Amino acid sequence: GFRMKNRIVVNGFREVDSRMRDIMHEDLDTVLMYFDFAQREGVVRRANHFLSMRTNGLIRDTLFLGDVPKHLQLIQLSAGSFRPPFASSFDARDTIARDFRTGWIDKLYQTTTMFKEGDFRFARIPELEIEVLELPFHSRSDSVLWIMLPDRDAELDRIVKALEPEHFDAIQAHFSMKRAGIVVPVFSIKTEFNATDFLRDTIGLDALFRLRELRFFDDHDSALDGVLHRAAISVHERSAEAG
């Protein structure tokens, strides 16, 4: 299933506020690590190693030297990973380059795809203008992979709309078992989102970016400098890995 690890890297051996330390240990299950930020290369290397190891190697080279300015006193790292095997994996011998067309556009593409025949849970939801194929993971995991496609004459934003939680019951209600041969692409997707402006300006948490609003240390006023979110997923014959 999903695994989460948190680590905070503190500049030098500064004393962290006792209440903040309790929150880190009890609520966030966070490990504190101390390092001299004057050794910027070492800080970057250690942070990137932690993120790579805790995300199945999907998230790499997140921090650079420019992300460790002289005034920086603390880096908080949160890494999640997900890598259960499919309940029934694809045969790698059936993974080849195949042709396909997209929508009504008369344009031919070629990409590496997997193939499998069997019984699958499939749903078509007319009111959402989407079709959904379900690929279950191993029984040890309580998760499944949903592959959603818009109807041929629907826009991609229909998929975004269908991802809203209130539509999940409708999707579940339309599932039925279908005997079919399915073709699924082998693919990887990575995305990056600088959440600083979103947190500060869009949802009104600008106070967190002002001094004296956060109390990380006993002897020093603190504020957030920036927040970065990165995510990746890789789908192949054995699993769908995410980090």
From TrEMBL:
Listed GO MF terms? serine-type endopeptidase inhibitor activity
State what protein this is by name.
Answer: Serpin 14 non-inhibitory serine protease inhibitor
Pfam family membership, one: Serpin
One GO CC term on file? extracellular space
- Gene3D superfamilies documented for this protein: Alpha-1-antitrypsin, domain 1, Antithrombin, subunit I, domain 2
Extract the InterPro entries matched here: Serpin_dom, Serpin_fam, Serpin_sf, Serpin_sf_1, Serpin_sf_2
Looking up SUPFAM superfamilies in the UniProt record yields:
Serpins
Keyword 4Fe-4S: yes or no? no
Keywords per UniProt: Protease inhibitor, Serine protease inhibitor
Q: Which organism is it from?
A: Anopheles vagus
Q: Where in this chain does the record put each Serpin domain? A: 3-242
* Top-level division of the source organism's lineage: Eukaryota
Is Cytoplasm found in the keyword set? no
